[in-house]
Amino acid sequence: FDEARFGLFLHYGVYSQLKHGEWVQLREVIPVTEYGKLKDTFAPESFDANAICDLALAAGMKYVNLTARHHDSFCLFRTNQSDFTSLDSPARRDLVGELADACAAKGLGLCLYYSYGLDWRHPYFFSREASMQGEVQWDSARPPYTEPQPEYKFEKDEDFTYYLNFVHAQMQEILHRYHPAVLWLDPIMGYYSRPDLFPIEMTYDLIREADPGVLICFKQGANGDEDFVAPEREPRAHTQGGSVGKMAWEANKGKKIEICETLQPKVWGYDERNQGEHRTPDEVMAMLEHCQKYSANLLLNSGPLPDGSIHPDDVATLREVGRRLRA
User: Fold this and answer.
1) Which of 92, 158, 78, 167 is nearest to 126 (CA)?
2) Residues 181, 65 contacting (CB under 8 angstroms)
3) What is 6-326's CATH number, 1.20.1250.20, 3.20.20.80, 3.30.430.20, 3.40.50.2300?
4) Euclidean distance between the first and the last CA atom of the chain, given in angstroms as a whole number
5) What pLDDT shows up at residue 237?
6) How far apart are alpha carbons 164 and 254 in whole angstroms?
7) pLDDT digits 0-9 by tens, 258-292
8) Can you say how many angstroms the Cα of residue 305 is from the centroid of all Cα atoms in its chain?
9) Could you give the count of Cα atoms lying within 13 Å of 41 in the half-sphere of its Cβ?
């Protein structure tokens, strides 16, 4: 991983159907029940793991990172903990499994993104009110619904244990079944808002016990025990991380940095409003040059279209970047 330099990031899920980015449930305040219906129309007929890996190789990339589960809790992998998954959709497909097989066959590293610090669907993730009680004020724990959501059952801090049991079980499933090189956790602001609720040492111990070889990343860092840090766009501490964020960033100084950027200028999941604004080969080459100053990897994101195919502008850009890197 230290020498990998360049990787492909993919934000894909049921939100891709709405074409307004991966935070659409929160930003457009879509009720939990209504949002859940997107599972029934999820149709990744053009998600081709082999083609994705071939594109990554053509771009000169060494690894691929897929959103196994984003903040909406939709899972692209086989799990016994939820029925809100790609396997329970009409597609009946394990997209993480398909990508794991393709990466192994083509010599690419597999990294898996997992939303540990946020879940807009799970009954016992903490409430917006609970997320405003700590040093760091954060209002994204739940969408700003004006009507009560019957699915939400969190009432007291102790209820969060049910959520922790859920994510710990899923992490073990992922590690035992797919053996990723990296388990890439997000969003760090969920942790910074209520670090007292997340047993981070226990979580990391559980991960390493399940797979001693896996690398752990949790953005800019939660407790300094991460294997590398992955800030967005610039190698710096989270500006809103409070004392916990500053401590973790200091503790991780000297570790490998992976800077994550996106080919869409504003969001990570596909957004039709970014049409014509995708990053150019020149811009990507500048990103790589910027990362090189810090001996950092570049994790470059593309938001696949609703059918799972990569946006043609991104395909063209990545192929041209690969051509330049080989020249």
Assistant:
1) 158
2) no
3) 3.20.20.80
4) 23
5) 80
6) 30
7) 999 999 988 999 999 998 999 999 999 999 999 99
8) 17
9) 11
pLDDT in tens, 303-320: 999 999 999 999 999 999
Instruction: Evaluate whether 268 touches 65 at the Cβ level (below 8 Å).
Output: no
Instruction: Determine the angle formed by the axes of helices 281-293 and 312-326, rounding to 10 degrees.
Output: 60
CB 287 within 8 Å of CB 233: no
What are the residues whose beta carbons fall under 8 Å from the beta carbon of 174, sequence distance 6 or more? 68, 77, 96, 112, 114, 180, 183
Residue closest to 307 by CA, chosen among 54, 6, 95: 95
Buried/exposed code over 134-171 (b: 16+ C-beta within 10 A; e: otherwise): bebebebbbbeeeeeeeebebeeeebbeebbebbbebb
- Integer Cα distance of 155 and 177 in angstroms: 34
Looking at residue 2, its pLDDT comes to: 82
DSSP state of 71: T
The residue among 76, 105, 98, 101 whose CA lies nearest residue 89 is 76
Is the per-residue pLDDT at 134 higher than 90? no
Rounded Cα distance between 14 and 73, Å, is: 10
CA distances from 33 to 121, 148, 247 (A): 9, 12, 39
Q: Based on C-alpha coordinates, what's the Rg of the chain?
A: 19
Instruction: Write out the two tokens for 6.
Output: 């360049």
Cα 169 from Cα 158, distance rounded (Å): 18
Which helix (H) or strand (E) segment holds residue 110: the answer is strand 109-115
Q: What digits encode the pLDDT tens for the residues 29-64?
A: 999 999 999 999 999 999 999 999 999 999 999 999
Tell me if residue 85 falls in helix, strand or coil.
strand
Beta carbons of 180 and 108 less than 8 angstroms apart: no
Question: Which sign, positive or negative, has the C-alpha torsion 235, 238, 243, 247?
Answer: negative
Q: Looking at this protein, which amino acid is placed at residue 101?
A: D
